[in-house]
Amino acid sequence: MADDKKLTPRAEDFSAWYNEVVLRAELADYSPVRGCMVIRPDGYGIWERMQRALDDMFKATGHRNAYFPLFIPESFLHKEAQHVEGFAPETAVVTHGGGKALEEPLVVRPTSETIIYAMFAKWVQSYRDLPLLINQWANVVRWEMRTRLFLRTLEFLWQEGHTAHATHDEAEEEARRMLGVYRDFMEGWMAMPVVTGRKTESEKFAGALRTYSCEAMMQDNKALQAGTSHNLGQNFARAFDLTFQTESGGTEYAWNTSWGVSTRLIGGLVMTHGDDKGLRIPPLLAPTEVVIVPIWRSDEERARVFEAAERIARSLGDWERREPNRLRVRLDLRETLKPGAKYYEWEMRGVPVRVELGPRDLEKNQAVLVRRDTGAKQPASLDTIGEDVEALLESIQDAMLTEARARREAHSVRGAITYDRFREIMDGEGAFVYAGWCGNAACEAAIKEETKATIRVLPDEEFRSAEPPTHCLKCNQPATSEALWAKAY
RNA sequence: CGGGGCGUAGCGUAGCCUGGUAUCGCGCCUGCUUUGGGAGCAGGAGGUCACCGGUUCAAAUCCGGUCGCCCCGACCA
User: Fold this and answer.
1) In Å, what is the separation between the CA of A20 and the C1' of B74?
2) Residue A375: which nucleotide is closest by CA–C1'?
3) Residue among A96, A76, A72 nearest A84 (CA)
4) How high is the ipTM of this complex?
5) Architecture of domain A288-395
């Protein structure tokens, strides 16, 4: 068992490490159904914090929540040609209900564009009804062949924003705005830096005019598509007759956007921040930010230490920080485990700050604060522990983003590069490679075929190289754009 | 769907070749002693050996079939 206590190191087998962390940190467990997962309280707690933060951001940008049904008439999916082509192979279909065959099979939503724009068509008559800005929190089902906890399961939780606008430019602005919201969330809350940009034709959403994406680098140097935002143009409006009267009395199709992030983000969080001791959760998303571990020898000491620990837990729990919410504190009073065993457990679970409190500390009116990200210890006076913990949490949140960004930059490659060198990189450690592309889908496909790497995005300006690449990585023809290449999840 | 692995207590496993009393560790329960980096001792509970069929006096073990899960490759948030 001694060996079982340690995780498989990331360097030895990243995939095994990931599975072990998710299971042992009790974020999730396998379900009896292949490809499905149970999200356990510690995993769901992270999701709840993500939801709250994102939901506030959606509301702040004018969106309202609604809920659309799980079942979609199969015919709806067929109304948009690209869309059905993209999703039909991976839908689950209900053919029977109440013991009888249904007249029309029902698709379990793989995404809700069809049902939502069908409803929008009923609700929108005039330009005065626009823009219509809706979000829904829901589960969706996609019948994937190969699944992985959080990263790809048959059923997953997500949010999908759906909007309708009077003009192309407004829709474009909306799609870009929500991509920005995602980026702010991923960097500000998840401490996960992303590269934003536009997807190529071959990688865009089925039915979209344009797809934008946030791409994050995992610790195995592979890219994770963490969130996407689509300008759907008028494709769905045409398919579902979503029209409105213009100011001048004409009739036009509305312009739509959709955008989503899912519980996949939790997988991204694990693979961005986890280490060989387990999970590391950025404080803002941690269901428990602080765990207090009391230390004692005699019964007399236990009584004293417990009393003090409870007092500190209360005062920390009541500590009002600048943002008006309280510290999320947990007090570990279990008497069957030694302190060391508790340390290992809370490290596995990723709690950002541990407070150690023993008799020697009490004599000095202090406690020891230990940060999960670096393992560094520091004493804190019991008189100022609230401020100290708050400051430490803020420092951890910042440090985690800085560290993740530095790691990404250390594994990014820019500047002139030969195709041979590129192949070498993709065969080896992997990287984010910024290189020229001629714009030809054939080159994109050939590279994917030969190296498994794909164009993650055509990066937004701030991510592009100071010296734009001049030639296509593959065919050496003049480049029409700079592309970010990587292997992806 | 192709390749690989696995199904024995909550978890991890031994036993299978060569059929005969279900193995060990962790965890769990009780008690005592412990507790500043994964505690010790003693006692205890816990099993349709994935499922179905066959061979046999007797099957976890041999034979036939079925199902499921995990990992690696072709699709994808």
Assistant:
1) 26
2) B37
3) A76
4) 0.84
5) 3-Layer(aba) Sandwich (3.40)
Q: Find the DSSP H helices in A251-380.
A: 264-273, 299-318, 339-349, 359-363
CATH, domain A3-273, list 3.30.870.10, 3.30.930.10, 3.90.180.10, 3.40.50.920: 3.30.930.10
Contact A325, A285 (CB under 8 A): no
From the alpha carbon of A358, which nucleotide's C1' atom is closest? Answer: B36
Tell me the CA distances in angstroms from A361 to A155, A326, A386, one per residue in order: 49, 25, 16
Highest mean pLDDT among A1-5, A220-224, A325-329, A448-452: A220-224
Distance A223 CA to B56 C1' (A): 59
Give the whole-angstrom CA distance, residue A184 versus residue A194.
9
Going by C-alpha positions, the residue among A434, A439, A428, A438 that lies closest to residue A471 is A438
> What would the two tokens of residue A35 be?
């490809």
**Segment A41-45 long-range contacts (CB within 8 Å, at least 24 positions apart):** A41/A287, A42/A287, A42/A349, A43/A150, A43/A266, A45/A287
pLDDT at A2: 33
Q: Which nucleotides of B are covered by protein (CB under 7 A)?
A: 1, 12, 25-26, 28-29, 34-39, 68-77
Nucleotide nearest to A214 (CA to C1'): B77
- What's residue A322's pLDDT? 64
Each domain of chain A, given as residue ranges in start order, spans 3-273, 288-395, 412-486
- Mean pLDDT for A364-388 is 96
CATH class of A412-486: alpha beta
Dihedral sign from CA coordinates of A223, A398, A315, A350: positive
Contact of A417 with A472, CB cutoff 8 Å: no
**Nearest nucleotide to A37, CA against C1' atoms:** B69
Distance B77 C1' – A206 CA (angstroms): 13
Rounded Cα–Cα distance for residues A404 and A273 (Å)? 7
| Burial (Cβ within 10 Å: 0-12, 13-18, ≥19) of residue A187 | middle
Question: CA–CA separation, A41 vs A26, rounded Å?
Answer: 8
**What pLDDT is attached to residue A323?**
62
Question: Residue A22: pLDDT above 70?
Answer: yes
A422 contacts A455 by C-beta, under 8 angstroms: no
Lowest average pLDDT, out of A9-18, A45-54, A264-273, goes to A9-18
CB A365 within 8 A of CB A381: yes
